[in-house]
Amino acid sequence: MDFETVRYLKSEGIATIILNRPKVLNAMNKQLWLDLQAALSDARQDSGIKVVVITGEGRAFSTGADLKDSKNRTIEQYRDYLEALQEVSRQIIRFDKPTIAAINGYALGSGYELALACDIRIAAETASIGSPEARVASSITGGAFRLIQDLIGPGKAKELLFTAESIDGREAERIGLVNKAVPADQLMEKTYEMAGRIAQNAAFSLKMIKRGLHLAQGEISLEGLMDFEVEGCLACVSSSSRGEALERFEKRKEKE
To answer: Considering 7, 65, 171, 240, which has the largest number of Cβ atoms within 10 A of its Cβ?
Structure first.
């Protein structure tokens, strides 16, 4: 599929969405959000895709909103842009397949928020990650008020948001903002290694586990969550992929 602002690739159960406005450090305009939605929709509908990787072309993951694009917006036009942004964040947060953000460089503002919406974040050690909104008289979006606190706690979240300072990949790993920081030249290799390990597993199980994790974050009571766990497990073990998955697991154990 061809898009104006992203590149979209599929291979071995992994879909890769590459933000592709490198001349402006993958700054985000409305078209980019629309292209992201279309690519995510295709990945969701493709039963052969088990994992989605999102990264950026060039020196940046994304530097956030394209300020040149936003300078002359009316309030209603800005609302339209923000609603498109929020819809993509909702889709990623609720996406029924695992998502990985490969943070290759600058991840600022709404670019940073896009990475937060993913399930897993792997960053280059030299990446620059942060929310500069307070410096430009703006505020954060994409569900980040909750997402960042869930990852690093309210105190550290307030420090980063109030100071509007950026941190590198190493510090982001230290505080739990990203899962792993790796040398920049190994970023995609390590990302695809993890994506490949995930893609080996049963698609329906991944879907049920991800849904259960979201429920456990506060969308449901403990009793309701435990009821879901029973039904989710029963749905998985009665699925058509159960026998094949057990056979693969036994063969893997024999090789170890």
So the answer is: 65
